[in-house]
Amino acid sequence: MRIGFLGEPPRLFGHRGAAGVAPENTLPSFARAKADGADVFELDVHATRDGEVVVLHDPTLERTTDGAGPVAALTFAELSRLDAGHRFSSDGGRTHPFRGQGIRVPRLAELLRAFPDAPLNIEIKSEGADIVAAVVAMARAAPSPVVLAAEHDVIMQTIRAAAPDLPTSLAATEVAAFIGALRDGERPSLPAGAVALQIPPTYGGVTLVSGESVAAAHALGAEVHVWTINDPGEARRLLALGCDGIITDVPHVIAPLLAARRAGAV
C-alpha cells in the first residue's frame, strides 16, 4: 500500500525543517519549512536522561548547540537551557543570525502541538524500547499521518515489533538487500509495514535511485523518497525517474519545481 494518506506524490519533505536557512530540527525551522511549501516534516529524535523525546539529529550537542556531551546525559530541564540556534550559519560561519534568539531543542510533543496539520517522517536515532514506545504512542495519537524511520536494524525491528500497524521506511540493510536483489536479477521484497525507500541517489559508488529501482519499489506498492536534494536540476532528474518525494534543506528552492510538476508543466 503506497502512502497516499500523505497526499498524491510527488511531495516535498522539509529536511529537519528547513535546515538550509534556519537552525535544524527547531520550531522556527519547521515554521519556515511550512511557509516555504513543505508537505511533510522530516525530523530526528533522541531521548534525554529523564526520558523526554526531543527533536535532535546528533547523539551529542556540539554541532548544533552551545552545549557539549551526549543528549542522553542531560535532563530535559538541562537541555532546555541550551541555545539551539548558536551554531547555525548560512555563510560559512561568518555570521550566526539565530544566536541568542531563545531557540531551544524542542520536545516531539511540542512539535506535534505547534503543527498539528503537518504529516511527519520521524527517524528514531537512539536504541531502546522506552523511546520507541513513547514515539509510537505519540504517532498513534497524532492528528496527522506519521511515518517512522530508523537507519539501524535493531531500532527498526523494535519499532515494527511495537507497532506493526504503523508505516515505516526501510533500514539501511533492508535497502542494501533491495538493491542487491535488483543487481542479481532477483525480485526484491519489502518487510511488512514498509511503505518507502528513503535513500540518497548513490551510496559508496553504488547507484540507489534509478528507473529500475523506482519501478521495482512501485511494483511492490512502495514509494521512493530521495535525500538530501538541494539542487533543482537534480530534483528535476529524480522526478523524471518517477520518485515520489524530494527531501531538501531548502524547501523554498525546490517547492516551485514540484508545483510545476504537479501542474504538468515540468
Written account of the structure:
With 266 residues, the protein is of the alpha/beta class. The protein has a single domain (4-262), classed as Phosphatidylinositol (PI) phosphodiesterase (TIM Barrel, Alpha-Beta Barrel). It has nine helices and eleven strands. Strands 1, 2, 3, 4, 5, 6, 7, 10 and 11 form a nine-stranded mixed β-sheet that branches. Helix 4 packs across helix 5 and helix 8 (232-240) packs parallel to helix 9. The longest helix has 13 residues, at 129-141. The chain is globular and about 55 Å long. The mean pLDDT is 95.
Summarize the structure.
The protein has nine helices and eleven strands.
Output the keywords:
single chain, 266 residues, alpha/beta, TIM Barrel, nine-stranded mixed sheet, 9 helices, 11 strands, 32% helix
Distance between the termini: 27 Å
Proportion of residues in helical segments: 25-40%
Level-1 CATH class name: Alpha Beta
Largest sheet: 9 strands, mixed
Low-confidence stretches: none
Residues in β-strands, percent: 15-25%
Number of domains: 1
- Reported by name, the CATH topology is TIM Barrel
Give me the count of strands.
11
Mean pLDDT: 95
Q: Radius of gyration in whole Å, from Cα?
A: 18 Å
* Count of DSSP-assigned helices: 9
Any idea what the CATH superfamily is called? Phosphatidylinositol (PI) phosphodiesterase
CATH architecture: Alpha-Beta Barrel
Helix- and strand-based class?
alpha/beta
- Large-scale geometry: globular
Helix-strand pattern: EHEEHHEHEHEHEEEHEHEH
Write the SSE topology:
Blueprint: E1 11-15, H1 27-35, E2 40-47, E3 53-55, H2 76-79, H3 108-114, E4 120-124, H4 129-141, E5 146-149, H5 153-162, E6 168-169, H6 172-183, E7 194-199, E8 202-203, E9 206-207, H7 211-219, E10 223-226, H8 232-240, E11 245-248, H9 251-262
Parallel strand pairs: 1-2, 1-11, 2-4, 4-5, 6-7, 7-10, 10-11
Antiparallel strand pairs: 2-3, 8-9
Helix pairs in contact: 4-5, 8-9
